[in-house]
Amino acid sequence: MTTDERQLQRPPAELLYAEELAAMREADADRPRPPGWSVAPDSVVRFVLGSPADGVAPKFVGSRRFVERCVVSLATNRGLMLIGEPGTAKSFLSELLAAAISGDSTLTVQGSAGTTEDDIKYSWNYALLLAEGPTERSLVPAPLYRGMTGGKLVRFEEITRCPLEVQDTLLSVLSDRVLHIPEFDHDARTLYAKEGFNVIATANTRDRGVHEMSAALKRRFNFETVHPIADVAQEVELVRRQTEALLEQAGVPLRPTPDLTEVLVTTFHELRSGRTVEGSALEPVSVMMSTAEAVAVAFSSTLQAHYFGGGPVEAAHVLDNLVGSAFKEDTEDRKRLQNYLEQVVRKRRGDQWEALYMASRTAEALDVD
Amino acid sequence: MSTEPLFFPVRHFSPMAAHLVGQAVRQERFDAVLIEGPSEFNDRIDELLLDHELPLALYSYAILRGGARRGAFYPFCEFSPEWQALKVAAEVGVPVAFIDLPWRHMAAGSHRRHRYSDENFQGNPYILSLCERLEVEGFDELWDVVIELQEFPHWRDYVTRTRALCDRMRQADPVADTEEDGENLCRERFMAEAIRQAQEAHGERVLVVTGGFHCSGIEAYLAGEGLEVPEREGGEEEEAEVLGHGIELTPFTYHRVDSLSGYRAGLQGPAIYEELWRGLQQGEGFRSERVLAQIVQALRDRGQVASTADVVAVEGTAKALARMRGREQVWRYDLLDALSSALVKEAQDAEYAHPMLMVAREVMTGHRRGRIDPRAGVPPLVGDVRRRLEERGCEPGEELRSVRLDLHDREERDVSQLLHQCGELGLRGIRWLEGADLFGSTDVSRVWEEWELRWSPEFDATLIEASAYGTTLPEAAAARLLEWRASADPGTGGANAAGAVILRAALMGLEELRGSLVPDLATAVVRDSDFFSVTTCLRHLIFLDRFHDVFGTDSIEALARAVEEILLQAFERAIWLYQRLGKPESGEWPLLEGIFILFQSVGVAPKARREEQRERLSLASQKVAVDPAKGPVIRGAAWGICLRTGASSKEDLPALFGGFYNAEGVGDFLTGLFRMAREAFLRDLPFLTGLDGFLVGLDEEEFLEALPSLRMAFTFFTPREKLEICDLLFSERVLWGGTPGEFQWFDDRLRTRGERYGLRFPAGDAESGGSDGDDLSPGPVLELTEVRRERWRMVLGDDAESVLGELTGEEQRRDVHLSFLYHREYGQEREVRDRSGGFRSGGLNVPEWINGIHELFPKATIERLERDALERYQIDEVITRPEVLERLEPNMTLLKAVLRCKPLMDRRVLGAAKKLVRKVIEELMKKWAREIESPFQGAPDPRRRSNQKIAKNFHARETIRRNLKHFDPRSGKLVLRKPYFFSRRRRFVDRWQVIVVVDQSGSMLESVIHSAVTASIFAGIQSIRSHLVAFDTRVVDLTDRCGDPVETLMSVQLGGGTDINLALSYAHGLVENPRRAIIVLVTDFFEGGNPVHLLATTRAVVESGVTLLGLAALDQNAEPCYDREIARKMVDLGAHVGAMTPGELAAWIAERVT
């Protein structure tokens, strides 16, 4: 990485893993690949899931068959739709896929209520438009245009937050792989997508219903559901890794102890799944207890301990941040959390579990009445 | 020179192995073919060669000392290598035999009841590393990839590869070849011995078809190098433990072979392996297109959308997946993944498979059911059931007869269990007639049942049908109960249902099964958030606990412990919910019973926990008792608990009475209090005199208002106790002196009145105001005596007659009318003999009663009495006579009752009923009209966007005009400072269609009423077109009557089943423009038909663009009770589900429409 790149707040995946990708491209140079792809499909899977034997770092945690399905979807003539609860690393996965397949994860449309067709396809430099008429020079390409001309993957984040008419812009692009530019003359009117072009969209199950996709558009996507991580140990490892990266960047030397991280992640895991690790059932909470949220709680607890406590990170910090950030306003959920603390945590043995229970006895944040 | 036996290693259920073993047996002339299978069947092995339809199983069982039966299945499919080896060997005339250790030698120690399962390979280290290397998930996929989908030029190539794989697996297995693996070693030694004997009998060249895992072990024993088998396994003493044994041929099903259907063994998707087997037989390999075609057909049969384009996409995706996974052939996983990728257009649940994938899995599992050739004799279950019934002398005969059983008697209990098992299997002709109310009763002394027996041809038919469930009656009954439990969605069954299943298992005496159901119960308890359901479950458990002598809970210690654990969990859960109870509209009665159960449960808790539980209940009750948001009955009950646990004393009560100053509330409070702790008040003079003061202090109207609830409260005392109360209150000692100092229980207002009636209060505390007692005239002492006597007599009822004397005139009539209702409280449960037969009031009938109460009581009292009559005592006849009907106070309760009884009414009554309905409806219309209409008036136009810079809206002319001033003459160009855009006007909107589809099942009544009202108000709104559709198992379109809710309601037929799917499909057909249509589906989502169809229709509706709103309730409270599982699935499919009041619904629709 160059100095400039090192100063980036968050470098894109293709820069962060440039070496791995270069090695793969070289290795796959003579292997059969889908047209327009820089590496072979199985290499993409290996890049996403990691492969210690080949010196590829693990990145995304999920089942192999799931990642295989995603990769194959992109090689067909349908787009890929990643759908799931917030904080399940949908965007991260789409970034990794784009970086691996196209070597570029920056062709991104961020969906929102204000997204217009112009943000997706192209718009005009109006001064030039009037001066010169509709020419290539006066056209301002948006990610879709660039992806089609460059044969690259285009990422469309939070697609269901866009109004329906705007979403449907993708219809002809996905089915005919063609973009019409009515302003241009004759031949130039139709922009054909170069091989390698496809779309990865993400949508959030919690937001669904804001703008449900049309059936026509749904048909042009393969849907893949991203589930929360099922294995506690894997999740602990991931949270530890990411918290460390965040703290590193924030210049904080303090780290939560491994057993505290484990308690935190186990708590998240149990509340999310409605099942304790011993297998007895719980009333699941309605707020999203995502891995990303766990990282945020671990991070903010450490910051709190570092700046205001001066000592190690304690269970009380975790509880404060858990209630404050994850549980926010919902009193029903707080009651469920209270129930969880009373029914499950109380019976657990181990320093951090006991500390967590003690903290819950005195925590003001928990008072629901 | 001896020849070594040739090992043919297999995986049970392996098409490739089955295919190749057939070739091997045909090609080589072996002296014998030896198969891993139950050798105890060898003398009947020819039976297997009859003309059966597969799958079938050999079922071997052993009866252990102590009476426990242990059975094991050896299932065979067409593609089982064992089966093919057997068939082909018989065909070419080679001797064939099973060589595995008989089940009876393993029965005592083994838990693997499916003898051809291989689940213990999943964690094998060698397998794990191989999976990682080959990038596959798990043993199943691994085996498929390295064996099933390979091409072997010769069967010997298969043998070489499989042996290599299995031997390395065995080496890596931490248990194999150690003493811990006793069972396997035993079997292998036995098999080695059997092989040697076969070689002696038939010749040296034998083929041994056995699980690949065992080959090297058997070889070791053959070579004399096998490990010494530990003594405890299969030793002499073990043999002595087995009292009897047997083996039978029985039909099997693919469903049971499938490992996903709950048996946790076998293989996933038998039908797809059968397809592979057929492909191999015809030299073609696996034909994925055929399976895909079947799946598509199945999807379409169920109304799911699977277009040709979809199918093409699935095929393409599957091929691409296979290729990426390094295979030419598309296989099961590729198909499933491709289906999931290309067909499912929504988020999938991590736990429950999507309906489409369920269909695919169903196709892959297949529906094949085995059938045994009749020449092989009757299915064993038939013989077993006949023998058992005969043994107990209760086989059904041609004559109808009934059997009465006392469950405390051991013999008769066995009979009862037997009959319950038959009942579970649905055997026609064995019918439970009646019995002690096991669920409701608190009477422990008598537990009895009565059964009715009669033989008919259907008895045999149902018995043969049931034989697929197992070979013995308990087996089959257990399988049937499990199937029933599994068919209910795992998330649905509330605690109540789960508890009931355990109870059924207990009634059938199936202890082992009961044990296996315990985890399910634990889950249900914790997930359930309905207090009533959880406490009912608690009651089931307490009941089991209390009658453990009948149901034998504690004969299995682990089970007893588990049940104890759940009891504890249910208790915790109930405590939790107890504190969150609201104030239900439908009355607090069920909740009161729940609290009582909760309290009882403390009493039966194990000693070690009793104190802690008492403490927790007490703490919770203290909170509930003072919570103003709770109803008086609940608070009274909570106080009762506080008193009994010693958390508070009676001195704390006064503050509370103040909180319920409405007179009716005091009675309700006492009802709760007495339910929990009546004994505490029985001889409590201070309390009684306090209450006395309260009673006397009420004015006439207040007293009458309070009377029903007070009367109810005192029904908790037995007649004898009531007499004691009278004695105490009206004895000389108390009569006028009272016990001073107790009256501060009540507030000053009461005091003042009391004083006016001549009650005396202690000195020093007498600064009473008495401002609002003015309306009462101070009466003479004598009058007070009379008032006291009368009032207490009315509160206690005619049980107090002998002390307090008779009533006269109006009072007497009131008393009779109250007795009419509240005598119904007495019965077995109150430990008072049922007196419903002989009301002393003498022949009051319902209309007379109605007439009576309307004459005798003020309005508030009438409403209370009517409510109790309808809701608590279900006296519906009040509304089947017009003269009765006309007298009734029109309100919601009555409206509901009228609609419930409508089918029974004759024309005259209907006329009166209609009047009543109209009155209530008019009220409702008035109430909701404004709220519903207002959102549709003057709604703002949200689409006005003026400044959005979109190329489409670029206003060139305006831009040029406004920027002309920036013309640059030097370059001859116009420089744009600012571009201008159109603002788009909203197009005129077509009228939206609002289709209200309402479930007319009884539980939804209030919602039906409100739907009718809402739809009629909608009909008057210009901007929408409304439809109204009612349904049960049929659909009635009421759109043309939609304007008149009374007509609508009178044409509603309540009850019947529920076919939501049908109604939804019908509504979908009404839709003209999907993007402008809203279907409001009012139902509790308890679908009577197949939920898969409903979900498919939901999907179709949502996908067509229609807005689908499911309402679990549409009424004033919007407190729904509904099938959450189905509702959740519908939400997942894109429907909106909620509960709303009509006003909220209007606002919701208005938001979408405008």
What are its keywords?
heterodimer, A: 369 residues, alpha/beta, Rossmann fold, two-stranded antiparallel ribbon, 18 helices, 11% strand, elongated, B: 1154 residues, four-stranded parallel beta sheet
Structure description:
The complex is a heterodimer of chains A (369) and B (1154). Chain A contains 18 helices and 9 strands. The relative contact order of chain A is 0.09. Chain A is α/β, with parallel strands linked by helices and 369 residues long. In chain A, strands 2-5-8-1-9 form a 5-stranded parallel sheet. A two-stranded antiparallel ribbon of chain A has the order 3-4. Chain A has 2 domains: 63-226, P-loop containing nucleotide triphosphate hydrolases (Rossmann fold); 232-361. In chain A, helix 4 (41-49) packs across helix 5, helix 13 (232-250) packs across helix 15 (291-309) and helix 16 crosses helix 18 (351-362). In chain A, 49% of the residues lie in helices and 11% in strands. The model of chain A has no long low-confidence stretch (mean pLDDT 84). Chain B has 1154 residues and is α/β, with parallel strands linked by helices. Among the domains of chain B are: 6-252, no CATH class; 284-362, no CATH class; 379-484, no CATH class; 489-578; 945-984, no CATH class; 992-1153, Rossmann fold (3-Layer(aba) Sandwich). In chain B, a hairpin with a 4-residue loop joins strand 3 and strand 4. In chain B, helix 21 (531-546) packs parallel to helix 24 (589-604). The termini of chain B are far apart. In chain B, 46% of the residues are buried. The interface between A and B is large, with 51 and 58 residues.
Broad structural category of chain B: alpha/beta
Largest sheet of chain B: 6 strands, mixed
Strand content of chain B: 5-15%
Largest sheet composition of chain A = 5 strands, parallel
CATH topology of the largest domain in chain A: Rossmann fold
Give the spatial strand order of the biggest sheet of chain A.
2-5-8-1-9
CATH superfamily of the largest domain in chain A: P-loop containing nucleotide triphosphate hydrolases
Mean pLDDT of chain B: 77
How big a fraction of the residues of chain A is strand? 5-15%
**Roughly what percent helix of chain B?**
40-55%
Q: Number of DSSP helices of chain A?
A: 18
CA-based shape of chain A: elongated
Q: What is the residue-averaged pLDDT of chain A?
A: 84
For this structure, what is the CATH class of the largest domain in chain A?
A: Alpha Beta
* Main sheet strand line-up of chain B: 15-14-13-16-17-18
Number of helices, counting only DSSP H or I runs of 4 residues or more of chain B? 49
